[in-house]
Design brief:
This protein has a domain of about 220 residues: 3-Layer(aba) Sandwich (Rossmann fold), CATH 3.40.50. By secondary structure, it is an alpha/beta fold. The chain is globular, with a radius of gyration of 19 Å. A ten-stranded mixed sheet has the order 1-4-5-7-6-8-9-12-13-14, sandwiched between helices. Strands 2-3 form a two-stranded antiparallel ribbon. Helix 2 packs across helix 3 and helix 7 packs across helix 8.
Length: about 325
């Protein structure tokens, strides 16, 4: 992993909008953020990687990507959060991206992933907001259940609930199990992604996909995850739904579910079940987005999360009934 910081500056028109209380939220004309790579050791001795961006001492936000992704899937969210003064910790899960592979055995259980998250949370001195997509959201809910006394400021789940839809999970597993021999070119990899996400416009250039790929000794491109993860975690779906729901019942801070309306992972029934365990849950529906919301409609996703974070007041919002918004 490169021992250097990444600095990005983006110029945008000054704009503002009203939040739900009618107050204006102002966006800066020049947004600058610096990302510092770091690594830390897991409880079982793996080297895990991440980036840290934004303002030390600001409200900590921990980002956890979905299974088969890397921390680079949060690029747009990191940019927006860091530019607004949040202390952003963006993690590569074990077996993904620049984090070390656990290999065969029991290295990819939710207990292990939650333990990694706990160690990352120890880097900050105030309760963080946990934002998790898919597997990252399951990890966050499992961690909350395992350590109910560990302070967490808020929870944001990105298109995931404890009881996910079988057909959607099967489609993800089929995608991740496909192409075991890798790809001859980045164009082949891009075609595989397009087949999985046919509703998403294809980018002008596929080069951005290289952050999710690695080149093997034979020169072929392979996804940047440990194949054992798919076999032992995703295929087996090793988590107890009822135990996860019991853990959610112990969480009383603000919570948001960002749902892709084209997703085949989250259903109305799954949301209702989670809401029964987490009555303060808010739901933001993102139209024209599938399971990978941050990639399908990044602006809508960022807007939902930023608006939620801007009005966080745990003492006031605790116990608030859920409602639905649309974007």
């Amino acid at each position: 992993m490169a021992d250097r910081a990444t600095c990005v500056q983006r110029h945008t028109p000054i704009r503002s909008k009203r939040d739900r209380r009618g107050e204006r939220l102002r966006y800066d004309a020049v947004m600058t953020w610096v990302s510092h790579p770091f690594s830390f050791e897991s409880e079982d001795g793996l080297r895990l990687a991440g980036d840290r961006a934004g303002t030390r001492g600001g409200q900590p936000v921990v980002l956890m990507h979905g299974g088969g992704q890397t921390r680079h899937s949060w690029h747009g969210a990191v940019r927006e959060l860091a530019a607004r003064g949040y202390d952003v910790i963006n993690l590569d899960a074990r077996g993904h991206g620049d984090s070390q592979w656990a290999g065969a055995g029991t290295g990819y259980t939710l207990d292990k992933l939650a333990s990694d998250l706990s160690r990352a949370m120890a880097m900050v001195d105030q309760p963080p907001v946990l934002i998790g997509a898919s597997l990252g959201g399951l990890t966050a809910m499992h961690a909350i259940g395992c350590e109910p006394d560990r302070p967490v400021a808020a929870l944001v789940l990105v298109d995931v609930v404890p009881r996910i839809e079988h057909d959607g999970a099967e489609r993800i597993a089929n995608f991740m199990n496909a192409n075991p021999e890798g790809f001859a070119s980045i164009e082949e990899a891009a075609a595989a992604v397009a087949a999985y996400n046919p509703h998403r416009p294809r980018p002008t250039s596929p080069e951005g996909l290289m952050k999710n790929l690695r080149r093997d000794p034979q020169g072929r491109l392979r996804w940047h995850w440990d194949p054992v993860f798919v076999r032992e975690s995703l295929n087996a779906r090793l988590f107890d739904v009822d135990a996860m729901l019991r853990g959610c019942r112990q969480f009383h801070e603000p919570a948001l579910l960002v749902r892709g309306m084209h997703s085949d992972i989250v259903s109305d029934a799954g949301i209702a079940e989670l809401h029964a365990a987490l009555p303060q849950l808010e739901v933001f529906n993102v139209r024209e987005a599938g399971h990978m919301i941050a990639g399908d409609r990044n602006d809508a996703f960022n807007g939902a999360v930023l608006e939620f974070l801007a009005r966080l007041d745990p003492a006031r919002l605790r116990g608030r009934r859920a409602h639905e918004r649309n974007g």
